[in-house]
Amino acid sequence: MPKLSAPNLTRQPPRSPRVRLGGYVLLPRVLDKCRAALLKENGEYNYNCPLDQYFLKFAGINALSLKKQVARGSGDGEILRWIEKNQKHPRSGQEIEAWSDFMNRRAPASIDQRERLNSYQKTANPKREDITTWFDVLDLDDFASFGGPA
After folding, report:
1. Which three-class secondary structure state does DSSP give residue 122?
2. Same structural domain for residues 26 and 52?
3. What's the DSSP call for residue 17?
């Protein structure tokens, strides 16, 4: 296997879902989890989870094909160029920006989802009233899971 550099997700979280690469939210987090999974250092983080699939579906990229590309040891920029070249649904900058903005603001769409988000938030810190989106919950959980104050 080529030299692969990845964060050890048993010691630190992947990048925030808000971090962008090529305008895409989630992509840097997806890459962190994929690289860590290849090195068996993914801890409780799973590559190709339902959240990752939002990105994969929007970009039109197959999870296994992306994993094979990542396994080559390619850096973020190389992976982005590969995605742009191989995606089934080429996206304009405006489409990427609109999708990323939507994902960044995405909140529970049903009572069940709202209850699930509230449950996550209360587990981390019941006094936090600023947690309203799924990305808020992920950031809070990542930070608190590795010793940060919730």
Report:
1. helix
2. yes
3. T
- Please give the structure tokens belonging to residue 19: 């971090």
- What is the model's pLDDT at position 2? 66
CB-based contact 76:14 (threshold 8 Å): no
Which residues span the domain enclosing 93?
1-105
Q: Tell me the two tokens of residue 131.
A: 């947690």
Cβ atoms of 10 and 43 within 8 Å: the answer is yes
| Domain C-terminal end among 68, 85, 105 | 105
Residue 44, both tokens: 């409780």
Count of domains forming the chain: 2
Residues 38 and 101 in one domain: yes
Q: Nearest Cα to 26, choosing from 4, 47, 55, 6?
A: 55
pLDDT, mean over the chain: 91
